TrEMBL record:
Its EC number is 2.6.1.1. Keywords: Aminotransferase, Pyridoxal phosphate, Transferase. One of its GO terms (biological process) is amino acid metabolic process. Its cofactor is pyridoxal 5'-phosphate. Residues 27-391 form the Aminotransferase class I/classII large domain. This is Aspartate aminotransferase. Belongs to the class-I pyridoxal-phosphate-dependent aminotransferase family. Gene3D superfamilies: Aspartate Aminotransferase, domain 1 (3.90.1150.10), Type I PLP-dependent aspartate aminotransferase-like (Major domain) (3.40.640.10). SUPFAM superfamilies: PLP-dependent transferases (SSF53383).
Length: 397
């Protein structure tokens, strides 16, 4: 079977981790994959998560299958975080499936849409997370881009974005990053979300919201503005969520797909098709991560502890952004540096080109996604000078 088949290229992001692990340089730095790291260079298991795991172990729950869409408690917890306090009707007209990670949620939504909107085009931002293209192509969709980032001026180009989205035909699907845009870190303001929600209603396109970083930009409440704006304006939309980052549950695959509808009856219909779709993809979701999330969110003390731990991760990211910008400015690096401090979330779109990224990997063992995306949380007190020095060299050579 495999004799005459060429090997596939490594994954643009996860492939970097494979290469990093093989690198023997003691100074190596992984700024590739979007995994949070503490100042000691390790990805912490949150204390709230450890305590939840102790409780789960003590409770000794059975390991039978979960329902196709996961436990009801998990769905409620997801919607609570997505919509926030006073969600009222918004939450009642929504249904949630526990999906295996944010990627699983996107694929579940893509396959669901393929059943009813197979002729639609999916519109993604330019640039977007590399895997978005793969997921929607695998589900059989044609993909097109809308303008998002002005590379020349290192900023969001909202006017061009809105103008393009006003031309998207009804029933096409528009993928939007709710916060911590991956890869640029450039987010939309509340007014810009209102304008997008109005465009979705007027034009009849379907918003598909990718919400993998809630709590990493400004906070749980502020970060959900895009979800609230869409849900309040009323177009039926899909929301892919993930607890990989904000609970640090990467390998537990605790994601979610939430669908909003015009009525509770429509939502029930949507849920019936969600079940059909999930059943043939993975049958039912893995339980452990979801149990951790519900154990934490159902206990006010643990929930408060988790929020504080999340705020700590956010603060460290902001601090490393400042140190990166200062470190590059002090070395007179001819790169625009203000955007490092302005952008939100784990990623900064550095402005480094492909050759400079290759130089950093080959000569300095610093791993960055080839688009120039840097995982700022991979910077630590121990490596920040080495990284700034190396970037200065890469830009000058
Ligand atoms: C990333 O963008 O690095 C993360 O979302 C991890 C992944 O699956 O690519």
């Amino acid at each position: 079977l495999w004799k005459n088949i060429d090997p596939a290229p490594p994954d643009a992001i996860l492939g970097l981790t494979e290469a990093f692990k093989k690198d023997r340089n003691p100074n190596k730095v992984n700024l590739g994959v979007g995994i949070y790291k503490a100042d000691n260079g390790r990805t912490p298991v949150l204390e709230s998560v450890r305590e939840a795991e102790r409780r789960i172990l003590d409770a000794g729950e059975e390991k039978t299958y979960l329902p196709i869409t996961g436990s009801e408690a998990y769905g409620e917890a997801v919607r609570g975080l997505l919509f926030g306090e006073n969600a009222g009707a918004m939450s009642e007209r929504a249904v949630t499936a526990h999906a295996p990670g944010g990627t699983g949620a996107l694929r579940l939504g893509a396959d669901l849409l393929q059943r009813f909107r197979s002729a639609s085009t999916v519109w993604v931002s330019d640039p977007t997370w590399a895997n978005h293209h793969g997921i929607f192509a695998a589900a059989g969709f044609e993909i097109q881009s809308y303008p998002y980032y002005d590379r020349e001026n290192s900023r969001l180009d909202f006017d061009a974005m809105l103008a393009a989205l006003k031309d998207v035909p009804a029933n096409d699907i528009v993928l939007l990053h709710v916060c911590c845009h991956n890869p640029t870190g450039e987010d939309l303001s509340p007014e810009q979300w209102e304008a997008l929600a109005a465009a979705a209603c007027e034009k009849g396109w379907i918003p598909f919201l990718d919400f993998a970083y809630q709590g990493f930009a400004e906070g749980l409440e502020a970060d959900r503005r895009g979800v609230r704006a869409m849900a309040e304006a009323g177009p039926d939309c899909l929301i892919a969520g993930s607890f990989s980052k904000n609970f640090g549950l990467y390998c537990e695959r605790a994601g979610s797909l939430t669908l909003t509808a015009h009525t509770a009856d429509d939502a029930a219909t949507a849920e019936s098709h969600l079940k059909k779709t999930a059943r043939v993809l993975y049958s039912n979701p893995p339980a452990h991560g979801a149990r951790i999330v519900t154990t934490i969110l159902d206990d006010p003390t643990l929930a408060a502890q988790w929020k504080e731990e999340l705020a700590g991760m956010r603060r460290r990211i902001h601090a490393m952004r400042r140190q990166l910008a200062d470190g590059l400015r002090s070395r007179d690096v001819p790169l625009e540096c203000d955007h490092f401090e302005r952008q939100q979330g784990m990623f900064s779109f550095s402005g480094l080109n492909g050759e400079q990224v290759d130089f950093l990997r080959d000569e300095k063992s610093i791993y960055i996604v080839r688009s120039g995306r840097i995982n700022v949380s991979g910077l630590t007190a121990d490596n920040i000078d080495y990284v700034c020095e190396s970037i200065a060299e890469a830009v000058k050579t």
